[in-house]
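Researcher: I'd like a structural prediction for the single chain below. Treat it as a standalone chain; there are no partners to consider.
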Amino acid sequence: MEVSLAINYGIILITVTLGLVYTWRALNWIWLKPKRLEKLLREQGCNGNSYRLLLGDLKDSYKMGKEAKSKPMDLSDDIMPRVIPYIQQLVQIYGTLFCTQSSNTYMVTSLTSLIKQNKNVIECREESFHLVWNNTKADSHRT
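Model: Treating it as a single chain, here is the predicted structure.
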């Protein structure tokens, strides 16, 4: 009787411990790590929308893309608002350097000098961080 009670307590303790460990890992993956990355990027001058759970900016991006494609377009029009309207809006709000979140965090920039200087540092610092080069009219040549 006492042996089976001790085994039951042991099983309960292991189950609770594993539950807490996996809950902490999920919380870290879903909320703490992205918020920590957002804070680091804001401290370094990379602004953008605040982190939203799991899907991030995908809902807004999809909605703006659907709206843009529903309107007719002339051949003389600028294609950027039609192809990537959400990124175009963020460029207008935040300038040439900003961050956006989907399933990963992306830093979008048209400053090639920044990419050359920081690409290796950024890739090593955070595995869920990706650098996207945005070719605009202001920086139309690559060196």
